[in-house]
Structure formats: C-alpha cells, structure tokens
C-alpha cells in the first residue's frame, strides 16, 4: 500500500436544469500549483475547488478528509457544506 498526497482541482459547469456537472479532475504536482490554477479557472467556471488528499494510488482509495486549498462559486455537497 503506497500512500501519497495528491493535489486535485475539480471544476463544475452547468448541467441539466439547475444541476452542476463535474468536469474531469486535474492533478497537480504540488498544493501551490493547484491553488494557482484553481484561482485562474474560477472566473471561467460556475464553481471550482482545489484540494489535497492522501490516497492509495494503486487501489484508488482516498482519505475522506481532504484539505481545501481554494474554493469559489457554486459547489455541490460536500464542498458547499464547509
């Protein structure tokens, strides 16, 4: 089991009706890069969140407590609850 820290950006666009549709998540090499890219993407999307999480990349198991680096706009739960 190889636990790694991964830095991810998740952006959201308009889906059907009032629903948000998640775009493909983007991985970054470090937390600062994830935050900067999310800040630049925020004006172009309905919502965006950048976060850091521990994961076993071999099995695809992610920690359930990500650390939010940046968030803006309309976000679905659980991002909107924090």
Quick structural summary:
The chain contains 1 helix and 6 strands. The longest helix is centred in the middle third of the chain and has 11 residues.
Draw up the topology in text.
Blueprint: E1 3-14, E2 20-22, E3 26-28, H1 31-41, E4 47-56, E5 61-62, E6 67-73
Fold and architecture overview:
The chain has 82 residues and is mainly beta. The chain has one helix and six strands.
The number of strands is: 6
As a whole number of angstroms, the C-alpha radius of gyration is 13 Å
Distance between the termini: 30 Å
Number of helices: 1
Structural class: mainly beta
- The whole-number mean of residue pLDDT values reads 91
Q: Biggest sheet, open or closed, and with what strands and sense? A: 6 strands, antiparallel
Helix fraction bin: 10-25%
List unreliable stretches of 5+ residues. none
The shape, in one word, is globular
Helix-strand topology string: EEEHEEE
Strand content: over 45%
């Amino acid at each position: 089991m190889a636990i790694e820290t991964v830095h991810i950006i998740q952006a959201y666009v308009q889906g059907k009706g009032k629903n948000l549709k998640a775009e493909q998540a983007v991985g970054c090499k470090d937390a600062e890069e994830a935050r900067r890219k999310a800040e630049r993407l925020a004006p172009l999307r309905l919502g965006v969140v950048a976060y850091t999480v521990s994961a076993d990349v071999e099995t695809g198991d992610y920690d359930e407590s990500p650390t939010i680096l940046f968030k803006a706009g309309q976000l679905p739960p659980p991002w909107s609850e924090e």
